[in-house]
Amino acid sequence: MDQYTLNLLVVGASFALYVGIAIWARAGSTSEFYAANRGVNPIVNGMATAADWMSAASFISMAGLIAFVGYGNSSFLMGWTGGYVLLAMLLAPYLRKFGKFTVPEFIGDRFYSQTARLVAVIALIVISVTYVIGQMTGAGVAFSRFLEVESSTGLYIASAVVFVYAVLGGMKGITYTQVAQYIVLIIAYTIPAVFISLQLTGNPIPGLGLFGTHTESGIPLLVKLNQVLVELGFNDYTGQHGSTFNMFLFTLSLMIGTAGLPHVIIRFFTVPKVSDARWSAGWALVFIALLYLSAPAVGAMARLNIIDTLWPNGTAGEALAIDEKPDWMLNWEKTGLLGFEDKNGDGKIQYYNDKNAAMQEKATAAGWAGNEVTRFNNDILVLANPEIAQLPGWVIALIAAGGLAAALSTAAGLLLAISSAISHDLIKSQINPNISEKDELLAARISMAFAIALATYLGLNPPGFAAQVVALAFGLAASSIFPALMMGIFSKRINSAGAIAGMTVGLLSTVLYIFTYLGWFFIPGTNMLPNTVDNWLFGISPLAFGTVGALLNFVAAYVVSGMTKETPQEIKDLVDSVRIPRGAAGAIDH
Amino acid sequence: MADRKTQTGKDNGAYWAANIRIIMISMVIWALVSLGFGIVLRPLLSGIPVGGTDLGFWFAQQGSIIVFMILIFYYAWYMNKLDRQYGVDEE
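^ Those are the sequences you sent over. The predicted structure of the assembly is below.
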């Protein structure tokens, strides 16, 4: 059987499974549609949360991000997991006790203000829509590479599948498909990682192999990697090459942002009890860690493998001849994500850092005319990993299914967050409070269909700023939603005026800072200052500004609350009731 | 909803103070292993070798995630105990 048929079979089977689950888990009430009737087992919810959270970025991009920078990009590992500690202790149990359906609903009730609820809805929609674009384009790429269809056709197929289980099943259907998607994606990620770790270090556990011994040379893997990188003029892998202060703020921004993402928070509304919400956050992190503990190993090992392939006789020997390129390089050259150019015309590919002056001197002496690997996209690393490690065809097919599972599961979670904000926070709360449950369910389904159409459109016509908007999503979640939720639970002093002021200050400062350096609405050329370290305020990169935005939010909320009327007694009682688990079951029917 | 009113404010105050204390301790550990050992304090740990690199690198790429998991499970277990002790658990 050829690779194409195999890919088609594995991806087709996974899609059939998702649709089957959707038909089994139809939603009949708004409680089922918004919160799976609060009947999800905490371990199952942990697994669904892991799939919900791990997007195309975690599955496809993260190992590549770490591979090409090394230690400096550890921020992604710590940031994207550390947020779960914040969720488990500061938000999830209390929001579950509150027992409503959406994040803006808590903000609106706790701060007794429709304005606060509206600000939260706006933040939620901006965060989720920008985030969903990346998932749809990721699904399109996976389709076009592995199933050899146009990426637009791939996108239509992906949208149709999401449409079936999200519109039909709502949160209930999404939860159980996410469990299936988690299983597909973790198997797809782990198998190549185990093989590559065995090949390089003899250790079947990638996380241990990373700190193990490189079998071929007999020295530790990371020492070997540092050696070959330095010989080629690159930065060493384990060293720190950026600013400590900025890495600190960036990591903290990712942590706070993770805890403030609405599509992750609403997953904790689906468990039966407050204690389940706490356990569930722990299980979610366990299932996430299964991938996140492998990812840095995949990154380091793939980087070493690639250098070995390009320098088959060692970095001091002859480079790889162009006509001896392995198949995976030819395959990926076709996609435009990998590119070579024989600058000195010697029929060999010299891969080195030509921006390093000392290295360039050596290279000139050897007759090299610049780095001949002209393009190497981060995303290839995970997708091409099985081919680089020469694994069997079914593993390659699994990677295709896994990448699609990661993109679709996150997309579905985001779409639910968007549609519930529209049907529950806008239509039911602001436009027609007397809407019947049946009509609200219909409205939720129509909002969902609308959100899918919008996401498909944006996936087909991705705005040029698709990469930067992720920074915006995390920045906004960190600077607006997280502080508002946390203060709503932990401080009775914060009143409606304080919360609105805080969210507005956090939102605006973060958006302004990002736009100043990346351009107004990310339009190239409209940035007011060049995006370089010298121009950044106190050396803080736009990506790391979420922490500062959150801090400004806290300060503004406290100052304004101190100057305005005290929180009413019934709201203080509400805060008291949110703080204790007893009575959570009664909160189901509201 | 009736049982909410049967709770006396004083007991719940003690429960909440105990919760805040365990959260504070957890947050200190949380920040220490990641932002501390993994980033700011890494130079101080550079003398401790771990598998071809130093302890700070290990915390940044692996150790912090393991500590995060332990923290959440410990917190969940501790709070469930606390809930029962103060009689605010879900029956």
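DSSP finds 23 helices and four strands in chain A. Chain A touches chain B through 55 residues (CB under 8 Å).

Shout if you want it in another format.
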